[in-house]
Amino acid sequence: MSRSRPTPNPQSDNGSGAPDTILVPRERFAASRVLVVGDVMLDRYWFGDVNRISPEAPVPVVHVQRQEDRLGGAANVARNAAALGAHAGLLCVVGSDEPGERIVELLGDSGVHAYLERDPALATTIKLRVLSRQQQLLRVDFENTPAHEVLLAGLARFDALLPSYGVVLMSDYAKGGLTHVTQMISKARAAGRAVLVDPKGDDWARYRGATVITPNRAELREVVGTWKSDDDLLARVTKLRDELRFDALLLTRSEEGMTLFTDDGVRHEPAVAREVYDVSGAGDTVIATLAVALGAGLPLAHGVALANCAAGIVVGKLGTATVDYDELFH
Predict the structure, then answer these.
(1) DSSP states of 203-233 as a string?
(2) Is there a catalytic annotation at residue 284?
(3) How far is CA 16 from CA 11, 257, 262, 270, in A?
(4) pLDDT in tens, 252-269
(5) What is the tens place of the pLDDT at every residue in 149-190?
(6) Which spans does this entry mark as compositional bias, Polar residues (predicted)?
(7) For the whole model, what pTM was predicted?
(8) Catalytic residue selected from 230, 278, 284, 324
(9) Domains of the chain
(10) What is the pLDDT of residue 277?
(11) What does the DSSP assignment read for 137-183?
């Protein structure tokens, strides 16, 4: 099925009069400097054919014929920022093991500036997916949490890197890499940096003071409860933003697009995907695009429009993927 290219089209529910089409010169994205901090993982894919059922149990036997490794978690966020042409830095913890070395190799291939803390006792997180004929049959996770000493070293490295970056992006996958996220947000905001957070879990007090937080519906529901109407949603989000001092909240709503809540009101961006193939990693693309746009000096509403457009492109690709500058502005 063919899919026509969506055009960034920031139309708001409050009639704010944003331009119909956004075109950002490549050099402005190149000047954007985004520091991603968070949990990294290796997305490993095994592809094969299924021709029989196992005699040992009623499960398919997959004859693996091809393996593919991709950056996952915060590493995929940084890869997305780099794909758009920005200067993307990544501060994270990996183990001294084969998956950790593979992440280092893939980051180099992606043009990401990696600042890695190594923990010999850490098993680098792997999400192994087994697929046959483009259908995922099984996912196997390998993971544990990094040591306290390594995380403190990461906090010191953050202090040293902060002056060199204009936007800070916290990518939380609840793997322990953002233990000191509250201090990092405070330091970044004190330095005048925008801070974007992709949250995890129900303790959002850790993200207090962030510029923008980007939950999906399930993540927001876990924190504010189930809303009964758009007015109820607005009331709950406003209360949350007031309590935790978030400048803005961007709610990603899958097939319903995304909604931005700020002091200026509510702006809704309808979904632009023509074909949805795989939504894994779409949230990474959204927050990375928004961070690059803010680093390029674009207004928040324009950044959201571009992020929505990028999401519409990336869900038409298999697995964790990226959108490059030419795709976004074609």
Answers:
(1) -GGGGTT-SEE--BHHHHHHHH---SSHHHH
(2) yes
(3) 8, 18, 13, 16
(4) 988 888 999 999 999 999
(5) 899 999 999 999 999 999 999 999 989 989 999 999 999 999
(6) 1-15
(7) 0.89
(8) 284
(9) 26-329 (3.40.1190.20)
(10) 62
(11) EEEEEE-----HHHHHHHHHHHHHHGGG-SEEEEE--SSSTTTTHHH
